[in-house]
């Protein structure tokens, strides 16, 4: 069974420490929502796991995956930038990523239909709306099977129907033994654990909107790096530590 | 279709469709070459003498024109992140991108060389020699430029840094390219010796370029 774990993870951008002492554990079939104020390091954490940033401390390990591939080669990263070329059509854009990332081109039309893009196949990506671009990026996740999904605010720009589709896709992925880490400011619509990054603001996040299954997952640490399950609300001198939350 | 041929095909398609690659480079080449006689005067003998050098400098500048978009465009729209997460080694990925750049930007310059050679009053043998040295030498320009493109992405500086980084490194290619072209027409040394050095420079940069560019990109991850 797939198992992703990170211990004592720290991230420094420029000379500023974004977070430090993050511990997390996630196994196949589980989803983790990363929440926190702007600048708390949600995107940085996803990029660390994707191998697109080097951690300043700590390590990330994957057990139970394909041994010949690195973590990054088994993960999908859906960032703010959608990696679409405006002058290529919808089919060409998706077709290229499928071939490059090693998916099956035969399932391409089906995935476009699943995301409601079937009528736009021959349209250059320049004419797509923000939501349609998002859907096209999501199509990549279906066509190329990779067990780890790293999603940076996946619901942004999606309409209600699109968010439902995304939730259904994520449920299917989890049911198939995959795992998901998603940075989000809103409900994902699936059962998920929550990791609070940064100092917790009096947050509107706790409560019903969170897809039900929020629970303690990730213990985190104050400056020293010792895991403390119940840090004091003040957080001491810590500037941008991370802590588990309810 | 393998990942690399898919990447090659995509980059060629982009270069042709946006209208940036092939045609712009050739037009720039044409402009540089036609400007020179206005500057040095319509002395046919002099033009014939410096013709190979003008063609080489024109091709060098024209090949730089599209180089700054080689990796920067993919960096800006997030494609580079996904390219890094592919199962293909990064060295081969950047080599495929360089190959696409050479086919869409440099090969048209080589094809345009005979026509522009006529503008400079070159004789057929000299035109053939320049075209051949450009054909052999431009891959070196692309691969050296690839290093510069990767560095300017990694250092998050704009395209202006690129010519400053790349042009000094292309000096040996320029020297031996022009030397071989001149040797074919005027002598006194043989065409073979400088041409072989030019081939060696190209082969060396074909190996060095992708590794250096990949290392620069990986370093830029921090």
Please tell me about this protein's structure:
The complex is a heterodimer of chains A (246) and B (222). Chain A is an alpha/beta fold and 246 residues long. Chain A has helices at 42-49, 90-101, 108-114, 130-143, 160-175, and strands at 3-13, 16-27, 31-35, 57-63, 75-78, 148-152, 179-183, 193-197, 220-221, 227-228, 242-243. A 6-stranded mixed sheet of chain A has the order 5-6-7-3-8-11, sandwiched between helices. In chain A, strands 2-1-4 form a 3-stranded antiparallel sheet, covered by helices on one side. The model of chain A is unreliable at 201-246 (pLDDT under 50). Chain B is mainly α and 222 residues long. Chain B has one domain (3-219). Chain B is 83% helix and 0% strand. Chain B is built from 10 helices and no strands. Chain B has helices spanning 3-18, 22-40, 44-65, 69-76, 79-84, 90-119, 124-154, 161-169, 171-185, 192-219. The longest helix of chain B has 31 residues, at 124-154. The mean pLDDT of chain B is 88. The chains are: A alpha/beta (246), B mainly alpha (222). Chains A and B meet through strand 5 and helix 2 of A and helix 1 and helix 5 of B.
């Amino acid at each position: 069974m797939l198992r992703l774990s990170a211990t004592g993870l720290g991230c420094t951008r420029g000379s500023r420490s974004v977070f430090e002492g993050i511990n997390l554990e996630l196994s196949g079939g589980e989803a983790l929502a990363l929440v926190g104020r702007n600048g708390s390091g949600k995107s940085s954490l996803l990029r660390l796991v994707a191998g697109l940033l080097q951690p300043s401390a700590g390590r990330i390990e994957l057990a139970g995956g394909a041994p010949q591939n690195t973590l990054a080669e088994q993960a999908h990263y859906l960032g703010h930038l959608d990696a679409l070329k405006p002058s290529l059509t919808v089919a060409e854009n998706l077709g290229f990523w499928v071939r490059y990332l090693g998916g099956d081109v035969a399932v391409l039309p089906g995935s476009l239909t699943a995301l409601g893009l079937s009528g736009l196949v021959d349209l250059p990506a320049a004419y797509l709306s923000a939501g349609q671009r998002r859907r096209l990026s999501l199509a990549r996740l279906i066509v190329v099977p990779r067990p780890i999904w790293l999603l940076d605010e996946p619901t942004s720009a999606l309409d209600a129907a699109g968010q439902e589709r995304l939730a259904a896709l994520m449920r299917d992925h989890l049911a198939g033994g995959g795992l998901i880490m998603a940075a989000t400011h809103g409900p994902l619509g699936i059962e998920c654990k929550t990791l609070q990054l940064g100092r917790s603001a009096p947050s509107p996040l706790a409560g019903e909107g969170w897809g039900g299954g929020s629970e303690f997952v990730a213990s985190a640490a104050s400056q020293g790096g010792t895991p403390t399950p119940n840090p004091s609300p003040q957080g001491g001198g810590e500037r941008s530590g991370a802590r588990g939350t309810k | 279709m393998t990942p690399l041929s898919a990447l090659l095909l995509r980059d060629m398609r982009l270069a042709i469709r946006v209208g940036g690659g092939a045609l712009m480079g050739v037009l720039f080449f044409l402009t540089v070459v036609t400007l020179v006689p206005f500057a040095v005067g319509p002395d046919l003998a002099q033009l014939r003498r410096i013709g190979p050098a003008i063609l080489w400098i024109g091709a060098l500048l024209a090949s730089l024109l599209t180089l700054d978009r080689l990796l920067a465009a993919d960096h800006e729209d997030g494609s580079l992140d996904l390219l890094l997460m592919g199962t293909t080694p990064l060295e081969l990925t950047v080599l495929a991108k360089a190959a696409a750049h050479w086919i869409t930007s440099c090969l048209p310059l080589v094809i345009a060389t005979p026509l522009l050679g006529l503008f400079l009053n070159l004789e057929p043998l000299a035109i053939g020699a320049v075209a051949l040295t450009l054909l052999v030498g431009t891959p070196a320009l692309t691969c050296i430029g690839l290093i510069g493109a990767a560095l300017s992405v990694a250092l998050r500086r704009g395209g202006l840094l690129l010519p400053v980084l790349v042009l000094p490194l292309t000096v040996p290619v320029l020297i031996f390219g022009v030397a071989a072209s001149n040797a074919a027409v005027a002598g006194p040394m043989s065409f073979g010796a400088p041409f072989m050095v030019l081939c060696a420079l190209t082969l060396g940069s074909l190996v060095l370029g992708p590794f250096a560019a990949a290392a620069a990109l990986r370093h830029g991850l921090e």
